[in-house]
Amino acid sequence: MWNAHNAKGCETVETWQRALAASVQTPRELAARLGLEPGPLAAVASKYPMRISPYYLSLIREVGDPIWRQAVPDPAELDDVGDSEDPLAEEQQSPLPNLVHRYPDRALFLVSHQCAMYCRFCTRKRKVGRSFVVTKQDIRAGIDYIGAHPELRDILLSGGDPLLLGDAVLEDILALLRRIRHVEIVRIGTRVPCVLPERVTPKLVAMLKKYHPLYVNTHFNHPAEITPESSAACARLADAGIPMGCQTVLLRGVNDSPETMLALMRALVRIRVKPYYLYQADPAQGTHHFRTRVEDGLEVMEALRGHTSGLAVPYFVIDAPGGKGKIPMLPNYCPRPNRDLIRLRNYRGKISYYRQVEQRPQRPCAATSEHEVSCCP
């Protein structure tokens, strides 16, 4: 059974909770800290709430720097350019308010409605920090749904941020999932190591370690976020045998230069975090000013592939609008292919040829794709 005996009000207040409570959450306080006029900030925050942890605020070096852009409300968020509140059609694929069942064998389980920082580019700006609330009844319903669907072998906990739950509450969820025989893998999507590294305590890590196979997908967007504090948080997780991946978003004015992305990917590998996805920014309402062209992402990928270890190269993907899933985007390394001789271009632009074997009769395909895309714009 779901156990609420460790609701926040009943827990001993820990260091990370004090840090979270000290976060900047009002335009007036942020304006005083950064020397800004509160009026424009208040107009944005009235629609899209703000929260910046003391740690992440301390990383800002100047107005408009990559840390600033991710954390500080921007009047550009109010420019309505026709983007969607729900670009990935999550609501249409949600049998429950806090569960998205898009793919055949896995589900997105939203277990928290809070984040340590409300990122200005968030694809769930319509929900997180606003009217969206996850209750213990929602958790119970999600567990029941997962238990009733034996095809679900991989569950991704997200929100909000699951690591903003207390240790005991999070452990209750993990224990309930582990009792479901067909759930093979549990993943946690969290930005906590980047924005509130104090949360990754030895106590938390010792608890998570009991529920292997457990994976953590975290989220870094700029080399300036790889600090001694965030590195130590990732090290505690890695030392517990928890594989870590990073889901980076390509953001204008933050990391859309090849040099910045190369530095970030190399830094992630150094702290034992595998670059997993590089996302083209979703066309979510309030985030248009962060979006780049797909060609910019392909240029970034060209600067990674071959110029650094394959271990440091993520998949560049577009999460297809309308909830169609992630589509990989690749530079065109195979220009002008023909049937028998494949012309190949390497990362330095050098050309070589690969001769194909004789073509065999084509077998009928048992499965067909729902959609066709070109990976070479």
| Percentage of residues assigned to helices | 25-40%
How many angstroms separate the termini? 50 Å
According to CATH, the homologous superfamily is Aldolase class I
Radius of gyration: 22 Å
Mean pLDDT: 90
Number of domains: 1
Which word captures the global form? globular
The number of distinct β-strands equals 11
Q: Can you offer a commentary on this structure?
A:
With 377 residues, this protein is an alpha/beta fold. It has a single domain, classed as Aldolase class I (TIM Barrel, Alpha-Beta Barrel). It has a 9-stranded mixed sheet with strand order 1-2-3-4-5-6-7-8-9. It has a two-stranded antiparallel ribbon with strand order 10-11. Strand 10 and strand 11 form a beta hairpin. The relative contact order is 0.11. The N terminus and C terminus are likely disordered.
